[in-house]
Write a structure and sequence with these properties.
Elements lengths: L2 E9 L4 H11 L3 E10 L2 E9 L2 H14 L6 E7 L10 E10 L4 H11 L3 E11 L6 E11 L5 H15 L1 E7 L1
Antiparallel strand pairs: 1-3, 1-4, 2-3, 5-7, 5-8, 6-7
């Protein structure tokens, strides 16, 4: 089935998600996978939408004409059908937490890249640490270890990196 990737960014407001999803429904398309978030007052969307070629063309026209009226900057891309994970890959939940400091995500993902680990999902946030109230950086995600990659070895290397940069890093089977 044809697919369209839509990204949208703009000021957050109540009803924005309803406006966007109504357009998808009105043309007979379906919201397949999506992530929507309020980033401290800024709305951001990444969505994979499926439908007939005609429905997706109609959605594209509708969003191009109505997007600025909704306060959004939109980009749309036709997506090629693909599988969700590499064949034989094994999914794991990754969690990193530390006092907030620059470079945590860059260092952790560089190590993952060295082992051809694919990042399927990644979320970061800064929150107030319990009791101390200091800024706490949290990274959570889902990664896929390629077939033949030892989870124990990845845990050991992530643990060594965590010690080096002052982070706790967990890698758990899903």
């Amino acid at each position: 089935m044809p697919q369209l990737i839509v990204t949208a960014v703009g000021p957050d407001r109540p009803g924005l998600v309803a406006d966007l999803t109504r357009h998808v429904f009105d043309v007979g398309a379906s919201l397949s996978d999506s992530r929507m978030v309020n980033l401290r007052g800024h709305f951001a969307l990444l969505a994979l939408i499926e439908g007939s070629s005609e429905a997706l063309a109609s959605l594209r026209r509708k969003l191009e004409s109505d997007g600025s009226g909704m306060g959004l900057r939109l980009e749309m891309y036709e997506a090629a059908a693909s599988t969700s994970r590499a064949p034989g890959g094994v999914p794991y939940r990754l969690k990193v937490y530390s006092n907030d400091q620059p470079g945590i995500a860059a260092r952790v993902t560089a190590l993952l890249r060295q082992h051809s680990v694919n990042v399927e999902e990644l979320e970061t946030r800064v929150e107030s640490a319990p009791f101390a109230g200091t800024p706490l950086f949290v990274l959570e995600g889902v990664v896929t270890l390629p077939q033949g990659t030892s989870a124990r070895r990845m845990r050991d290397e992530l643990g060594a990196l965590g010690e080096k940069i002052g982070c706790d890093i967990d890698l758990d089977a899903i």
